[in-house]
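Hi there, hope your week has been kind to you so far. No rush at all, and the record is pasted right below.
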Amino acid sequence: MKFIGNVIWIICGGLLSAIGWWLAGALWCITIIGIPVGVQCFKLSSISLNPFGKDVVDEGGAGSCLLNIIWFFVSGLELAIGNALIGILLCVTIIGFPFGKQFFKIAKLAIAPFGARVVKVG
C-alpha cells in the first residue's frame, strides 16, 4: 500500500516538493560554507519523493538550533509555505487528505531540518 501511495504522491505534488528541496540544496552548495546545508537538503528530499512509511525524529541540539534559525530565514520559510499551501489544497477533498497530511509533515520539516532524521516506519 505504501508503494501505491508514494506513486500517487509523486503525481499529486511530491515531485514539486522534491524539486524545491533540490533547488534549495543547489543554491546552498554554491558557497563552500553552505555545502553541509546543501547536502542535508539533498538527503531530506528523499522524504519529499516517498513520504509514506517514513517519519521524522528530532535529535537536535544547540548547534542544530542555531543552524535552523539561519535556515528558516534563508530557505525554510519558502519551502514550508509552499508545502503547507499544497497540503491545504489537498485537504479540501476526502481523497486528498492523506496526501495533505504528508505535506504538513514536510512543511514542519522545512521549518527546522537540522537535527532531524528520517526513519522508516513499520
User: Anything to note?
Assistant: The chain has four helices and two strands. Residues 24 and 74 are 9 Å apart (CA to CA). The chain has one domain: 2-120.
